[in-house]
Design brief:
By secondary structure, the protein is an alpha/beta fold. The protein has a single domain (4-217), classed as Dihydrofolate Reductase, subunit A. It has 6 helices and 9 strands, in the order βαβααββαβαβαβββ. Strands 5-4-3-2-6-1-7-9-8 form a 9-stranded mixed sheet.
């Protein structure tokens, strides 16, 4: 068993999620950031790859005090569990995802050194599975076993691709900001899927100055 998994990503009109140096670009508008905050508040876990931690240093917490309070009223912690997919345990000890505002799980593989694991364990839970890369299916099963039912994946490009490739994604939510970036990582970076993965469009709407589109994946 695994949780319901959805990817939320902000992309330019040409499908890029940052620039060619993998530097973060402001793609979302205020209305979209409020939408993202609500999605976070309604999730049990927020997952990112180590590439995103190293380039963006995201906090991955719910920003709105009202939404944090809504979670507490439901008997939940103010913030969802933060999950970093990080084979070699490279998450910097001063990364914002390791602060005390929310709980964090770092998923590593057998490549991670005992020293790094021990250092991370002082600030987070550490899950070890996979020979080189993190075993994503095992990670999802583990998350389910600890009560996580809804996982929001917030990138980046390589993690999105790997999760889709493994059949571990149920839904993709893309906010298209009204910009064109040119070269840069895409919504899903990796080898071409042969054949391409078919999606079912379930929602399109205007949000602020951009377009929101939601697709479902079906693996049967
Ligand atoms: N616009 C948006 O919505 C948005 C959101 C998030 C990020 N971004 C952008 O995306 C870029 C980062 O994306 P990225 O592709 O460089 O990094 P990423 O997807 O965040 O992280 C990828 C890394 O995760 C690790 N990993 C561990 N196990 C894995 C597995 N089984 N499959 C795949 N990866 C695994 C790998 O590094 P190790 O082998 O070292 O563990 C891999 O290189 C940044 O430029 C950031 O600004 C944009």
């Amino acid at each position: 068993m695994r949780p319901y998994v959805f990817i939320n990503v902000a992309a330019s009109v040409d499908g890029k999620i940052s620039d060619e140096k993998r530097r973060q670009i402001r793609i979302s508008c205020k209305e979209d950031m409020e939408r993202v905050d609500l999605l976070r508040a309604n999730s049990d876990a927020i997952m990112v790859g180590i590439g995103t931690v190293l380039s963006d240093n995201p906090h991955l917490t719910v920003k709105s005090p009202a939404l944090r309070e809504m979670r507490v009223q439901r008997g939940l912690s103010p913030n969802p569990l933060r999950v970093v997919v990080d084979s070699r345990a490279r998450t910097p000890l001063n990364a914002k995802v390791l602060d005390s505002e929310a709980e964090t799980l770092i998923a590593v593989s057998e490549l991670a050194s005992e020293d790094r694991i021990a250092a991370l364990r002082k600030k987070a839970r550490v899950f070890v599975e996979g020979k080189e890369k993190v075993d994503l299916a095992a990670l999802m099963e583990y998350l389910y076993s600890i009560g996580i039912r809804r996982v929001m994946v917030e990138g980046g490009a390589r993690l999105n691709h790997a999760l889709i490739a493994k059949g571990l994604v149920d839904e993709i939510v893309v906010y298209y900001g009204s910009i064109i970036i040119g070269n840069g990582p895409t919504i899903a970076d990796g080898p071409s899927f042969q054949p391409p993965i078919p999606l079912k469009l379930v929602e399109v709407s205007r949000v602020g100055s951009g377009v929101l589109a939601v697709w479902k994946l079906s693996y049967d």
